[in-house]
Records
---
Amino acid sequence: MTNSVIKTENLTKVFKVGFRGKSVAALKGLNLEVTEGEIFGFLGPNGAGKTTTIKILMGLIYPTTGKAWILNKEAADVEVKNRIGFLPEQPYFYDYLTSREFLRFYGQLFGLEGDELRTRMNNLLTLVGLEDAADLQLRKFSKGMLQRIGIAQALINQPDLIVLDEPMSGLDPIGRKEIRDIILRLKEDGKTVFFSTHIIPDVEMICDRVGMLMKGELVNVGRLNEIMDAKVKYVEIVARNVSKEMLAHMEAIGSSLYETCDHVSINVRDEDRVDSILQLIKDGKGSVVSVIPQRETLEEHFIKKIGGTS
Amino acid sequence: MKVLTIARNTFREAIRDKILYNLLFFALLMIAASLLLATLTVGEQSKIIIDIGLASINVFGALIAIFLGIGLIIKEIEKKTIYNILAKPVPRYQFLIGKYIGLLITILVNIVIMGAGLYIILILNELRWGHSIFDVNFDIWKAIYLIFIELMVITAIALMFSTFSSSSTLSAIFTIAAYIIGHLTEELKLIGDKVQDSLLKGPITFFYYFLPNLDNFNIKGRVVHRLDVPSSYIALVTVYGLFYVAVILLLSGVIFQRRDFK
């Protein structure tokens, strides 16, 4: 039996926009469940409603209809926030504070003080690699440093659930890897991590489960191998020394060809034909370099889904 | 405790804000300039100095209260710093009160600096005429105390506007209007009594009762002329001011609690 850490039921949010107060539904009946100890990737294009969902979970906005629970308490409950770590989308922080003042401020909001707070501050500065910038004002920080100090403040209360809104956006590959490592370490410590992103490879690398949000609706949710087509899309055969004649023959039986300087890559859609193609290569005195079955990537799946809804 | 954490941070933000030093500089300049003006008058120069000095403290104090007060919440929303605070275990009303107290401390520090400036000028003036420094009118501190109570009310009004408006300019205009009308409520009542048109009479009477009577806090005239200001009056006006502040903060809290932070 697993415990639900985040749960939403029929969550809907309608915003009034413009002078005339036109209604725009940012969320349409969202049902979502995140269980203890997992890394959950919340995926969706810009404007899908990811931040709206997170803001409802954090009690910053109220749902028009529906309910949201965190750790079995209502999302707007102030007490439950003692157990949550939150990093908002793009770190907007008081830039007149130094790293240390900044962490002390947030620690005090959790009622921490004295040696306990000092120890946690030092540990977190080490964790995110900002010991050298401990007395530097945040206005002098780079984007990556801001994101790291943002993660540090989200962990100051040693939360059970960590909610990160777009933690990797705007970071270089090294910065993204550092954030991924921190998230994985949190999972090892038994924490639940919920993060939104539109950077798909990050999700593929670290998430246990993903939810895909499009235009305010959850279009897919589950383990990566569940939601993506496990079926082989095509088999890619790379071969050498294949004669022109043979190539024409292969093309005729329904495969697409891409020639490079000395290799040819043959994509076979029909798995049953793979053996006959390999036979053809052999007969023509060619040599097979590799045979790789190609499955759908998350990115392709994602784009297919967007295409399907728009 | 969390209220104090937020108050301390608000104070820190305010003292790292340049606008504060500009206003303080001009206030002290005005107070110093009163010494020059006083030399142009015949008779009791200290009256002129006290008159101009207290008026400067009132006006510049109000400017600090209005401009920093409105920025309090609106800046938090514009810069999106509020998201991360309200996602912590901080009830919204505590955030609001913390911000309010932080600004009051800032204003108090500034008023005391301005008051000290005025006091020094008064001492210099007495010494210039060969008087004792004990001749300085100590009652100016009573007037400054009541100015502070007035600024508490103005700050609360500025805070209230900033809890629901997303435009600093509009909030500033509303608060300045409240400040000016608040000083004219006696006139408002007179006009209300004279006006026959019931369409006009209604709103005028409403404003008279709804807006604070800020002239209650003004004892400048009595202090200038060394007339006695009874302690009972000061106590009564303090209670009036605090009551008004409590009502406005309560109202702001209700509005703020329901607000969506998009």
Note: Residues 2-258 of chain B form one domain.
---
Amino acid sequence: MSVLILVEHDNEEVKASTLNTVTAACEVSDDLHALVIGFNCNAVVSAACNIDGVSKVIKCDSEAYQYGLAENVAPVVKDLAESYSHVFAPASTFGKNLMPRVAAMLDVQQVSDISEILSEDTFVRPIYAGNALATVRSTDSVKLITVRTTAFDAASEEGGAAPIEEITSTGDVGLSNFVRHDLTRSERPELTTASIVISGGRGMQSGENFNMLERVADKLGAAVGASRAAVDAGYVPNDYQVGQTGKVVAPDLYIAVGISGAIQHLAGMKDSKVIVAINKDEEAPIFQVADFGWVADLFNAVPELEAALD
Amino acid sequence: MKVVVPVKRVIDANIKVRVKADRSGVELNNVKMAMNPFCEIAVEESIRMKESGAAEEIVVVAAGPQQSQETIRTALAMGADRGILIQTDVPLEPLAVSKLLKSVIEREGPGLVVMGKQAVDNDNNQTGQMLSAKLNWSLGTFVSKIEIKDDSFEVVREVDGGLETVSLSKPSVITVDLRLNEPRYASLPNIMKARRKPIETLTPDELGVDVTPRIEVVEVNEPPNRQAGIKVSSAAELIEKLRDEAKVLA
């Protein structure tokens, strides 16, 4: 059977989350169809054709899809889904927003945020903030799956030469309108794909103090993240949040600065290869998961770290 | 405008869960239960709408075992007006919950459903999206700001790249994120008053909804445990360890 992959993109480029999703889908089928729903999205379609493992790209291009509104996009996926054994999407805000709407239209119980594929119908997914791992078997005839991207390697962006099939738009259903984006601009690597992440917590005390972390991040080529406490306090924007309900990261190196280590934060970073914790409270739970703990005042430790990296 | 707020009873978010010895699930006996934190934010938002005059009535709906009444009572004590419990001991999946909610909502006819973006037990993040599809209503997910306009809701969504503002035609299903508000604590007089607020009990059969699970839980396991490592006492020592032992720095 063929499987369908929902391509996450911004009409200009394919988001990295799609590449991890392709790798997951490859485990159940070698006939992968990538669905690009967008507006003036030829660059995305070309890039999708090149992804290693993709055997066909389906393009649905209409102004109704410019901003990826779930109300408009879901009917396109729904119409296609029944000819596939599985539909895969990344468990990013794109996939989380869209996939359950499709699932309900198909009367299918979606399987969210899988971290492992055991067979074509059996999957492992973290529950309770990752404090338990459930092995679940789907009995629905079409399986709708969102993929924890950090649990699967990225497929190669080269090597494919998939043909393109165009399908017609299902139009604007007229339920919602895009108003504006306020996207965070950064020259640093993206949080979910960076190989090094340095995150700050409540201990940072202010947004200005995050500049210290940014200077270290720039020396390491790292992304900057934050705990919920730092986001709630307004030190940094919401898209910095690492945790159960924010972003899940699993870099080679995660440096937690001034973060106590609530279970909700650990849920978003404990699959990192190496964890470093810098905190002045030696009882902080973050030290229980850290490979290297440094009990120190971050306002001394972070500048010292920056200087030592020269 | 009437507002419907679905709420869920879950293990208190501050408690570390334990996997049962027979690996059939997570231990729920003798564990402190509470309202899902995202549901609290939804209840709070509905109360603020009532306080501002934008909402007339707040109906809280829970689906689950009889004890879910306590969760409804908590919402009533915060300021909701009445409750509906859809009582069943069958473990409910998001698809089933969306069907139960749909049938209640068609009867109630609210202008808005506001609910948590996910429950912190199964972390599915599905029910609101599914409900919006079942009702064929507009959908705003992961919302950190709601502005009520004449014929729409303008909402700010927390997305991976930052923030996105969309305009949703009424009626709408809105799922809420952490930054929307800070929920209030119920005062003692309001807790007392909530005891007299009505809660209607229904069953999935009465609503004509088949809640048979579609997903079989094969087993539930503990995740691999990370061990605490070693302590360092200087930046130089840390960098040396990361380079030479962990080999994560070049």
Note: The CA atoms of residues 149 and 167 of chain B lie 9 Å apart.
